[in-house]
Every structure is written in C-alpha cells, then in structure tokens.
Amino acid sequence: MSETLKISAFSPSTAVAANAEEEATSQQLALTIARAAEDRKGGDIVLLRVSGVSYLADYFAIITGFSKVQVRAIAQVIQEQVAQEWQRQPLRVEGQAEGSWVLADYGDVIVHIMMPQEREFYNLEAFWGHAEQIDFAASNPVGE
C-alpha cells in the first residue's frame, strides 16, 4: 500500500501573519475595554501585553475602582461595550457579588477591576513586570 502525502497550504509565514492579526485584534479589544473603563471613571488603567510571557492571555487590563459599586459598574459597562462592539461575552466573570475585585475573562484579554487596597496588595503590575506595558493614553487620542 502506498500512502499519499498531503501538502498543506499552511506555512510558518502564514502562522506568523495569523498570530500578528490575532495580536492586533486582542490589542483592539483591550483598548475597547480600557476606553469603557475610562468612561466610568476607572482609575490608573494599565494594559499589559502578556502574550510573550504567559499562555493565559494576550493582554491584561488592570483598572482601579474606588468603591464596590464603581467596580461593579465598570465591569458592567465593559461587558456592554464589548458585547456591542465585538459581539462577545466573557467566558467567565468572578467577584461581581463581592465587588472588591472583579475578573472578566475574554480569553485573549483578562480584565482585573480592583479596589485600591486589593490593587496595592496583589500588585499585578509588579508580578507581571516583565510584560510590556501598553501606553493607553497614547493609544487613545483626545477627541475620539
């Protein structure tokens, strides 16, 4: 019996292009999340590109809310904005009832909305300090 060798159109350069496109899409989703958080007066918004240092996600969005009500409101507006612009729901949301730290997992972007005490204690920016920090302000020109 002879086996037929199937040749695929998939090549390493195709994989690189697909990864670059995925990365750009993930970054745009992270920026949508940051803008939504900013609209609800979320503080100290940090976007970390963790794709190079972790398999968990491509980006982390870390946001401070200054009350439990605000933390929940930020989480809600993010979910609404992502659903509207991206037609996506989070894979899971945790901490909404407590309101001191809400985590929303969109697969390629993980959102952390925290009260100042939790943010300071867990210090995710330092823990993921080897990840590239995206300058949200530069990506969000005035007037948009």
Question: Care to describe what's here?
Answer:
It is a single chain. With 144 residues, the protein is α+β, with helices and mostly antiparallel strands. Helix content is 43%, strand content 21%. The chain has a single domain, classed as Beta Polymerase, domain 2 (2-Layer Sandwich). α1 crosses α2. The protein starts with 11 loop residues before the first helix and ends in a 5-residue tail after the last helix. The N terminus is likely disordered.
What layout of secondary structure does this protein have?
Layout: H1 12-39, E1 43-49, E2 59-64, H2 68-86, E3 92-94, E4 101-105, E5 109-114, H3 116-122, H4 124-127, E6 132-134, H5 136-139
Parallel strand pairs: 2-5
Antiparallel strand pairs: 1-2, 1-6, 3-4, 4-5
Helix pairs in contact: 1-2
Shape: globular
Spell out the CATH superfamily. Beta Polymerase, domain 2
Low-pLDDT ranges? 1-8, 10-17
H/E element string? HEEHEEEHHEH
Determine the CATH topology.
Beta Polymerase, domain 2
On the 0 to 100 scale, the average pLDDT is 85
The radius of gyration computed from the alpha-carbon positions, rounded to a whole number of angstroms, is 18 Å
Strand fraction band?
15-25%
Per CATH, which architecture?
2-Layer Sandwich
Total number of domains: 1
Q: Quickly count the helices.
A: 5
- Helical coverage, percent range: 40-55%
